[in-house]
Q: What sequence folds into this?
């Protein structure tokens, strides 16, 4: 199981995560920040849990590229 | 309040503490960012869209102009938030927007909002001023111009009667004090290359402020350099030639530092306020400059130089990682209560100790920044010389303090 988390408030809208993991992230037209697709919010943290381990690589790239380091990817 | 014959002193405001410090210490205008689309996006200190009415409320009372910085590069996904921000700024009564991207300029004009052209656009000649006069009433010049070049531009504005959308002559603004960037007017890509963190989206990682060595790849020899901080310019300071700065005919002097502490804003604005007023009343003197410089050195600085204003000499590089400030603040405690009738402030001491004779600093979102020497206090209701961690202490002060206020003492700093 892959767990991806986005701490959305700190996003500066640079778009890197969307470039690297376009199926998991998109930019909100409303506030210009990244959205973790189908993420469930809890105290400002958006999380998805996916059995599809193939997403690990792209999400990990997005996490590494994020300038504000607000994306975390874990295998549980 | 701005006197139209005098230059406008513009202060940075990264939060309410700094905003209040700017207001109290004599700024004519303030500039600030909201959320992520400004050149200090990474800072956790930015205001939010909900803060805009409070900012204008505090500034309008003192007739201080308010400028929203919206000066990053803009992507398609930002277009909607730009409109939301500008609409909110317009409703809140913000005076103008400081813009770089044409999308911001265009929408601001659509809703009839005053536009200032950011230094990020890099204006270096009169034809560019004419071009942007179609949209903007104030333009910040490139930081790499000399005073002679700035003067030529202001003279041409007057001579050719270059007017902005307001129908008034366009106002020329320059940077007066604060951090300088190794790249031309902030257009730097180092941080983007090293950390995917774009300076032009307000997320500079400050690569230039670090130590570097240069190695000859052929021989492996380390090339000898006088200065390991080879990319870190000293801070700009125009105070000692402020008379020449004002004589160029500029209308606005900007103090940089939205990322710096409130006491920095207080000290720098107070000093430049005095210097500008001294210029106009004819008392600007070398003796005063000396005292003012001592004051400026007390707060964060990387050493001072005159930028490119006095000629196109190569930058002067800082020889230090952080600040050369001669003073620093140490956290002591927090505000507990204010007794308005007796004008007594109560603080809880949470760290270190406090002694009669200490210079203390009180900062808070509404209080702003207040600094004074401690001459008397009661510690746990007894008149004592020293208060220690855990003590409750009361100090007579003639301004209201609040529970959100923090108490510091000022100590010498040995950088």
A:
């Amino acid at each position: 199981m892959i767990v991806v988390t986005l701490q959305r408030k700190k996003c500066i809208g640079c778009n890197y995560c969307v470039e690297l993991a376009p199926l998991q992230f998109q930019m909100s037209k409303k506030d210009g920040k990244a959205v973790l697709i189908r993420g469930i919010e809890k105290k400002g943290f958006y999380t998805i849990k996916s059995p599809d381990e193939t997403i690990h690589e792209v999400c990990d790239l997005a996490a590494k590229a994020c300038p504000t380091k607000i994306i975390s990817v874990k295998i549980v | 309040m701005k006197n139209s014959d005098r230059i406008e002193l513009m202060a940075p405001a990264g939060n309410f503490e700094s905003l209040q410090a700017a207001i109290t210490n004599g700024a004519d205008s303030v500039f600030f960012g909201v959320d992520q689309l400004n050149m200090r996006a990474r800072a956790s200190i930015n205001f939010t869209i909900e803060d805009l009415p409070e900012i204008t409320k505090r500034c309008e009372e003192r007739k201080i102009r308010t400028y929203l910085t919206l000066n990053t590069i803009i992507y398609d996904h930002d277009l909607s938030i730009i409109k939301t921000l500008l609409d909110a700024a317009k409703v809140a009564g913000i005076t103008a927007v400081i813009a770089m991207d044409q999308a911001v300029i265009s929408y601001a004009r659509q809703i009839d909002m005053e536009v200032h052209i950011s230094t990020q656009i890099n204006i270096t000649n009169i034809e560019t001023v004419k071009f942007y006069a179609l949209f903007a009433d104030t333009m910040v010049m490139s930081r790499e111009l000399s005073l002679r070049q700035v003067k030529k531009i202001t003279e041409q504005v007057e001579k050719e009667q270059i007017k902005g959308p307001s129908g008034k002559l366009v106002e020329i603004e320059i940077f007066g004090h604060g951090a300088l960037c190794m790249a031309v007017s902030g257009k730097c890509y180092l941080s983007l290359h090293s950390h995917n963190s774009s300076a032009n989206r307000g997320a500079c990682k400050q690569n230039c402020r670090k130590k570097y060595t240069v190695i000859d790849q052929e021989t492996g020899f380390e090339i000898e350099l006088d200065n390991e901080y080879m990319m870190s310019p000293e801070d700009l300071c125009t105070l000692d030639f402020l008379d020449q700065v004002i004589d160029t005919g500029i209308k606005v002097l900007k103090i940089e530092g939205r990322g710096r502490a409130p006491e920095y804003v207080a000290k720098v604005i107070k000093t430049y306020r005095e210097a500008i007023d001294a210029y106009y009343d004819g008392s600007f003197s070398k003796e005063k400059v000396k005292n003012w410089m001592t004051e400026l050195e007390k707060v964060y600085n990387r050493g001072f130089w005159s930028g490119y204003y006095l000629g196109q000499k190569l930058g002067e590089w800082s020889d230090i990682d952080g600040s050369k400030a001669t003073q620093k603040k140490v956290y002591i405690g927090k505000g507990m209560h204010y007794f308005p009738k007796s004008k007594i402030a109560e603080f809880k001491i949470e760290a270190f100790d406090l002694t009669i004779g200490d210079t203390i600093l009180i900062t808070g979102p509404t209080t702003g920044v207040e600094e004074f020497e401690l001459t008397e206090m009661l510690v746990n209701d007894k008149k004592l010389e020293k208060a220690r961690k855990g003590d409750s202490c009361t100090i007579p002060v003639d301004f209201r303090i609040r529970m959100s206020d923090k108490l510091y003492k000022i100590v010498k700093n040995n950088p």
